[in-house]
């Protein structure tokens, strides 16, 4: 059901209104774009559906003035920031998106449509986690994390584990060693045989990294925080955290419907956050991002560039009108 969250409906039923900017996605990037759209005196709305990717995490690290606060608290504060501007945030799913620069139409669940001159896609990505080891999905965002930058300072000097099945190649070895910025005590779980050269194994040993090749069967929460790792050979080890990586599934269906270039890494954008389709911008994790701070910045840039584009569109229209006047 379509409903406005503390704000008025941007599309009165009596007469359709063309928005300047339609923002799809109400996470960090989308709400940042909304604030910049409002500050830029443009008429817009945010359409959002589902929880933020960061919802399972206890806090978001490195967010200026909101460091180590929970994602829900930060997003609630962002919504509060929009209230003075009477900027609509609508909870609904966008079923279809079509049109071209200056005339886009989004069809929402229930059949209502929203028209806008520009579109900003902040649709994010989905973490597709492996089914094994048992317990990994249940602890995701709490005791199992994917980013040592977002969640690492708290564990400095502790004992950490990194899950890297089939560890192979220089870049993978460097990835493991990168975690030593947190602590020297790093255990890498390869969940089976690691495919390493003698030099790569020697480097890991020299740096003090422990390589455990026994398959990891189960991960459980440890009382007081951290994880207990159960291996198929019977070993049980405790660590302060397990770092693991799932597959990133780009939520790019709406971008593809408009003809935007979308790769496995994300929606392709230029330095102005514009996609390969004029009038369509994208920001946040869906554009190869992976940090809250970067998402906020890209959302602001997308909104500002969309507003600039509207200004120049209107200027071009008025110049053409003057030229056509007898």
Q: Which residues sit in consecutive blocks of at least 5 with pLDDT less than 50?
A: 1-15
In whole angstroms, the N-to-C terminal distance is 51 Å
String of helices and strands: EEHEHEEEEEHEEHEHEEEEEEHEEEH
Give the CATH class of the largest domain.
Alpha Beta
- The tally of strands reads 20
Summing up helix and strand content along with how strands pair, one would put the structural category as: alpha/beta
Instruction: Identify the overall geometry.
Output: elongated
**Major sheet characteristics:** 8 strands, mixed
Helix content: 25-40%
Helix tally equals 7
Percent range for β-strand residues? 25-35%
List keywords for this structure.
single chain; alpha/beta; 326 residues; 20 strands; five-stranded parallel beta sheet; eight-stranded mixed beta sheet
Question: Can you lay out the helices and strands and say which pair or pack?
Answer:
Blueprint: E1 3-4, E2 18-24, H1 28-39, E3 44-48, H2 71-82, E4 89-91, E5 94-100, E6 103-108, E7 113-121, E8 125-128, H3 136-139, E9 144-145, E10 160-163, H4 170-178, E11 186-189, H5 198-206, E12 210-212, E13 216-221, E14 227-231, E15 236-239, E16 241-243, E17 247-250, H6 253-258, E18 262-263, E19 266-267, E20 280-282, H7 292-324
Parallel strand pairs: 2-3, 2-7, 3-4, 7-20, 9-16, 10-11, 10-16, 11-12
Antiparallel strand pairs: 1-4, 5-6, 6-7, 8-17, 13-14, 14-15, 18-19
């Amino acid at each position: 059901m379509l409903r406005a969250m503390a704000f008025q409906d941007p599309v009165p039923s009596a007469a359709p209104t063309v928005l300047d900017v339609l923002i799809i996605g109400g996470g960090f990037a989308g709400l940042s774009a909304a604030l910049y759209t409002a500050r830029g005196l443009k008429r817009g709305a945010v359409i959002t559906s589902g929880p933020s990717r960061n919802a399972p995490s206890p806090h978001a690290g490195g967010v200026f003035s909101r460091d180590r606060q929970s994602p829900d608290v930060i997003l609630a504060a962002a919504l509060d920031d929009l209230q003075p501007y009477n900027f609509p945030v609508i909870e609904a799913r966008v079923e279809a998106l079509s049109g071209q620069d200056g005339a886009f139409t989004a069809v929402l669940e229930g059949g209502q449509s929203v028209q806008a001159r520009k579109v900003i896609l902040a649709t994010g990505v989905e973490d597709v986690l492996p089914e094994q080891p048992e317990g990994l999905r249940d602890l995701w965002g709490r005791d199992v994390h994917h980013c040592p930058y977002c969640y690492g300072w708290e564990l400095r000097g502790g004992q950490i584990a990194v899950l890297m099945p089939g560890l192979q190649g220089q870049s993978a070895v460097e990835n493991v060693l990168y975690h030593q910025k947190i602590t020297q005590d790093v255990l890498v779980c390869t969940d089976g045989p690691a495919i390493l050269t003698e030099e790569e194994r020697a480097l890991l040993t020299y740096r003090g990294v422990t390589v455990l090749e026994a398959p990891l069967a189960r991960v459980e929460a440890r009382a007081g925080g951290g994880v207990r790792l159960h291996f198929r050979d019977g070993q049980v080890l405790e660590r302060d955290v397990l770092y693991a990586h799932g597959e990133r599934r780009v939520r790019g269906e709406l971008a593809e419907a408009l003809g935007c270039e979308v790769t496995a890494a994300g929606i392709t954008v230029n330095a102005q956050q514009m996609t390969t389709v004029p009038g369509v911008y994208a920001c946040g994790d869906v554009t190869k991002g992976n940090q809250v701070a970067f998402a906020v910045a890209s959302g602001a840039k997308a909104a500002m560039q969309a507003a600039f584009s509207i200004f120049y569109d209107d200027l071009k229209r008025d110049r053409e009108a003057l030229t056509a006047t007898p």
